[in-house]
Amino acid sequence: MSIVVAYKWSANPQDAAVGADGVVDWSRAKAGVSEYDTVPIELGRSLAQAAEREYIGISVGGKAVATPMAKKGAMSRGMDRGIVVADDATGDWNLSQVAGALAVLARQAEAEIVLTGDASVDENAKMTSAVLAGHLGWPCFQEVSAITPTDGGWTLTQAIPGGTRTVEVTGGVVVAITSDAVQPKVAGMKEILAAGKKTVDVVDVADLGVADVDLQVTARTKPVAAARKHEVFEGSDAATQLIAALRADSAL
Amino acid sequence: MTTWILTADTSIAGLIEIAKARGGDIALIALSPQAAAIAGADSVTALWSEGTPAEAFAPAAVAAVTPQPGDLILAPNRPAERAIAGAVAAALNAPVVTGVREASADSIDIGRFGGISLETVTSAGPIVAVVEGGGAAEIGTAAPDAAEAETYPARVSAENSAGTVASDLSSAKRIVAAGRGVGSEGDLQLIREFAAALGAEVACSRPLAEGLDWMPKETYIGVSGKTVKPDLYVAVGISGQLQHMVGAQDSRRIVAINTDAKAPIFAYADYGVVGDLYEVLPALTAALA
Fold first, then answer.
1. Which tens digits make up the pLDDT trace of A119-173?
2. Residue A2: which H helix or E strand, with range?
3. Are A143 and A118 in contact (CB under 8 A)?
4. Are B270 and A231 an interchain contact pair (Cβ–Cβ within 8 Å)?
5. Whole-prediction pTM value?
């Protein structure tokens, strides 16, 4: 039985280039553990200590996920070991297929609970946790800031509009953690060296048994940026000029 | 052709609009008594129970959604509805799309990776789409009783209100958004005064809502927060990173106020003031008086 955290090895779209045909070129964007995933990794480490359970990281991505750099980058954050799918064929997978594969890895890890980030830094869909939970036959709770183990389940603190609520769950659950739940620690040299000795098992795509999910892209383009006026004012009467310009434009 | 709508809340005018534009029937899976009273649905399945979180109704929602190829399953971009939509997608082995720009009868236009690429997608089977809810939907008269439902074992044991419920930004005509350029929580008063003079709602960028906690989470604009399309969007002390602009770039007019003339926000702006917000905002407020 274990505490499992799902993480994504990905880059920030801000650093990617897009061709006129809409194809995204990630070659210059530096990949890493998705920024929002560092928070659930940190929270999961404390939870695994509190619950006295093994702490396992799972990830689905391209070959880069199983490189020594990626292994150390992830495992240095506190997991005991990892189970990953590292195959460039996953580059064509849609979110539902990735979530299905993560569910297989979570079962292999004998997960009692799976933590995820709020969203991934590249897609920002906030849906992988939900589809993963569906595959596991567990409930999914998002925007959770704290988890306490209970007898047979978990107590979750979940953000709701205007406040928080406490949810008691019996059995397994997938929990998406808010990006400000805890402050992730930066791994030091000691943790990075220790991470090099941790096991990261790579599962073959053919052994996953994940069904195809049909989603065809019939067209792809680079968005045309809206034409903007770019009128910029400076100096002591900038405020007056701005209001005058907005009134002339019927924006006020 | 049926459009299935999963919702725990009445703020789904955007979803009803998509469903009507596609044509065909609307099947509503309502996860609260309020949602069950939404008008315009051809069928309503009411799934709720006092003290049980909406998320726990996933098995019942899965049983209630029985789509045909060509059907669309819509959920507003909110935590409970995303959880239910994910369960439905897993059960149907259906694809999930987010960042929806337009949904027609046979294809969906989506923005990928924070909108840097646009794709038109289609599937042989049903598609699950998560879209911005929009304003309040029209309410009918009679809501059906809650159906007998299979739920996951979960219950709400306490609720703590922070006492502030954020205004609805999705239908606001004017928005003033504050960013990291604002030096302290107390200085937000300058933003509020300017917004009041402008008749605008107040929003923010992510750091002010998460991390600093100066503003409610429901008010941050960006790829993982709210997407808004007001007539006028004034970004104050916001640098204009891609992740923020995705949520505001469809505004009709964008105004930037920033000390840094090289800030990316100016590339998105119709009008800009290069200057210190502590000088510019009081001057603007006075000019509007």
1. 998 989 999 999 999 999 999 999 999 999 999 999 999 999 888 999 999 999 9
2. strand A2-6
3. yes
4. yes
5. 0.91
Instruction: Report the alpha-carbon distance of residue A141 to residue B82 in Å, rounded.
Output: 9
Q: Which of B62, B116, B231 lies at the smallest CB-CB distance from A251?
A: B231
Binary contact (B164, A162; C-beta < 8 A) = yes
Using alpha carbons, select from A86, A95, A81, A77 the residue that is nearest to residue A40.
Answer: A77
Give me the total of CB pairs closer than 8 Å, taking one residue from chain A and one from chain B.
288
Among A225, A228, A6, residue whose Cα is nearest residue A117: A6
List the structure tokens of B112: 């990928």
Contact between chains at B86 and A99 (C-beta distance less than 8 A): yes
The rounded average pLDDT for each run of 10 residues, N- to C-terminus, in chain B (289 residues) is: 96 94 95 95 95 98 96 96 98 96 91 92 96 90 84 96 73 94 95 95 94 90 90 96 92 96 96 96 94
